[in-house]
């Protein structure tokens, strides 16, 4: 029995049908018939493969949606933070005032303690005072005197004390209060007797304070 005939016999055994005697195998080109069956089998396999591939689920996009959501939240947070920064109240910064000053005093030596008046002839706008009264006394520092000056005319109120040396002819701000708190200054000092009981003093220099 030829190989083709054996294969056909095996095919018939695997696929029994009624009326087997109706199958006329005589004159059939068994090789061509088997080739046709093989081609049909291959076509069915390719069709099943394509059908299976078409049914593969698409790659999920959940991760992309999550990333987009996170980016949106971050963007909104940045915008809100920027708005809060812009709307935050600005804390007042200290203002520094500085400039030259000239103060002239008139002392009455007949009084005890020595009293007098003063006038700011230069730098009244910087000092915030144009005139006032003073009390002169010996300083706690040996060889120096203090002028405790109380402003009575100007935008500032309060007192400031000038300590000065009659031998070295220099002065500086010793202490201050109220609107003059933080006042600093120094410079040169001179004086002249206009009578036996009257002295005119002149203080020139620079002052600075923060308000």
Give me a quick take on this structure.
With 211 residues, the protein is of the alpha+beta class. It contains 4 helices and 8 strands, in the order H-H-H-E-E-H-E-E-E-E-E-E. It has an 8-stranded antiparallel β-barrel.
Topology:
Blueprint: H1 3-14, H2 30-54, H3 62-87, E1 96-108, E2 114-122, H4 124-127, E3 131-138, E4 144-153, E5 159-165, E6 170-176, E7 184-195, E8 198-210
Antiparallel strand pairs: 1-2, 1-8, 2-3, 3-4, 4-5, 5-6, 6-7, 7-8
Describe the structure.
With 211 residues, this protein is α+β, with helices and mostly antiparallel strands. Strands 1-2-3-4-5-6-7-8 form an 8-stranded antiparallel β-barrel. The protein is rod-shaped and about 160 Å long. The relative contact order is 0.11. About 4% of the residues have low confidence.
Quick tags:
about 210 residues; 4 helices; alpha+beta
Shape: rod-shaped
Mean pLDDT across all amino acids: 78
Summarize the biggest pleated sheet: 8 strands, antiparallel, barrel
The total strand number stands at 8
- Give Rg in angstroms: 56 Å
Placed side by side, the strands forming the largest sheet appear as 1-2-3-4-5-6-7-8
Structural class: alpha+beta
Question: How many helix segments?
Answer: 4
Distance between the termini: 123 Å
Low-confidence stretches: 19-26
Our estimate of the beta-strand percent is 35-45%
Following the backbone from N to C, one meets helices and strands in this order, namely HHHEEHEEEEEE
Fraction in helix: 25-40%
């Amino acid at each position: 029995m030829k190989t083709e005939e054996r294969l056909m016999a095996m095919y018939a055994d695997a696929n029994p049908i009624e009326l087997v005697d109706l199958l006329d195998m005589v004159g059939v080109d068994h090789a061509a018939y088997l080739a046709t069956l093989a081609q049909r089998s291959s076509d069915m396999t390719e069709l099943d493969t394509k059908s299976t591939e078409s049914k593969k689920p698409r790659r999920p996009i959940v991760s992309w949606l999550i990333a987009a959501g996170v980016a949106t939240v971050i963007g909104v947070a940045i915008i809100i933070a920027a708005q809060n920064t812009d709307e935050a109240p600005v804390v007042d910064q200290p203002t520094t005032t500085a400039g030259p000053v000239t103060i002239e005093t008139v002392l009455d030596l007949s009084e005890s303690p020595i009293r007098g008046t003063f006038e700011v002839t230069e730098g009244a706008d910087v000092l915030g005072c144009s005139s006032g009264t003073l009390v002169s006394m010996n300083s706690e520092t040996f060889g120096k005197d203090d002028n405790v000056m109380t402003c009575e005319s100007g935008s500032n109120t309060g007192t400031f004390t000038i300590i000065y040396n009659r031998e070295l002819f220099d002065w500086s701000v010793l202490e201050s209060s109220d609107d003059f708190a933080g006042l600093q200054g120094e410079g040169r000092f001179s004086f002249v007797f206009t009578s036996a009981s009257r002295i005119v003093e002149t203080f020139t220099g620079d002052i600075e304070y923060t308000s």
